[in-house]
Amino acid sequence: MNTNNCARNVPKKRLLSLKELVQEFGVTMWFWRTQIWDGKLPFMQVGRKILVDVQDVENFINAEKQCQYF
Known about the structure:
Blueprint: H1 6-9, E1 15-17, H2 18-25, H3 29-37, E2 44-46, E3 49-53, H4 54-64
Antiparallel strand pairs: 1-3, 2-3
């Protein structure tokens, strides 16, 4: 039995909770909440849980990037 390719077959998680966003990106829970409340970050709500699509987070990061030249 070949188990070398097991990790390749597992799909990445598409939706992240706010707690997972905090762990993944190292930014506070309130930062993510304010981005959602300000309409800058799309989300979906399942019951009381707020979930954010990973691609929306990537789009948010790319939109907020700033280049400064010194």
